[in-house]
Amino acid sequence: MSVNSGSVDETSADLPVVHAFVLGGTISMTKGPTGVAPGLSGKEVFANIAGMETTAKVVLHDFRKLPGASLRLDDIYELALLITETLDGDAAGVVVVQGTDTIEEVAFCLDLLIQTSKPIVVTGAMRSPAAPGPDGDANLSGAVVTAASAIDFGGVVVVLGDEIHAARLVSKSHSTKPSAFASPASGPMGTIIEGAVIAPLALRNRGPHVAARPVRESASVPVVVIGLDDDGLGLTAGNLADGLVIETMGVGHIPSWLVEPISEIAKRIPVVMCSRTRSGPTLTATYAFPGSEQDLLRAGVIAAGSLTSMKARLLLLLLLRSGADHARIIRTFSEMQ
């Protein structure tokens, strides 16, 4: 692998070009007196990847140097435009390197904001370079191999631990394990074995597209979790919000006494329901008791299907900032089913 900052090495002219945007995160962290923090440049992050001289020439972009939790949506808008511009040029694919705290969110946003058949791969590390058994180099290697593969995965993918996951389906399922990323509904789309991509699965339909240039500077979409004997106090978050996501019980159920206040909120702003199980869909036509999914749909609540609340919130945020009206919001969530 040939690594350069902002330019291509002509000595590896026959290799596919992969552009890597480094945002920071655990993979770039160095040890200080009290713990680790982002400190490495993109060149330093990629310095120790061995055995890839015949895979790709990597062009590095030091985009941010932040922990994943401190990225803003405006950072992702800017990144999406840069990636689009890059893919219109010489790039065979793109790798985004960032903190794992928000990998599933950033990958999902990029999936919505960018239309391309070229691979966009998001990766990071669960262990910093200063920790025993760091996983960053192996994840970078797998990400570059995937980005250079020219495979159309049907959307943005996340690569860690030699597994390839669809951005729409992947979740961070553990706070510390190197095997933290999983796709509960489907399993991984593919794997990386002996430096090659084995991808037996691809997404059947490319997801909806949302404009990468927002027309609104900001929007507020809180997430409210509904629980046993819920007094509805959390729903007051919708009073000052532009939209609301509610995590319902099971397949879309809430206490019967909360239907009316949620119905009132849905008259003012879009309200989206997800399952608090974070795996499996909300239903539309199975249960008919007060507080059931049918009750909520009649009250004007939008079903998120299999989207987690995290991803439903982001989709609603991006739609609101794009200037989408209520009909467009309903249609887009329906397209995600």
TrEMBL record:
Instruction: Pinpoint the Asparaginase/glutaminase C-terminal domain residues.
Output: 227-333
Q: Which GO terms fall under biological process for this protein?
A: asparagine metabolic process
What's a Pfam family this protein contains? Asparaginase
The record's section on SMART domains has: Asparaginase
GO molecular-function term, one example from the UniProt record:
asparaginase activity
Per its UniProt record, what PROSITE patterns does this chain match? Answer: ASN_GLN_ASE_3
For this UniProt record, the keywords arranged alphabetically read as follows: Hydrolase
**Residues of the L-asparaginase N-terminal domain:** 21-196
Q: Which family does it belong to?
A: Belongs to the asparaginase 1 family.
The entry's protein name is Unannotated protein
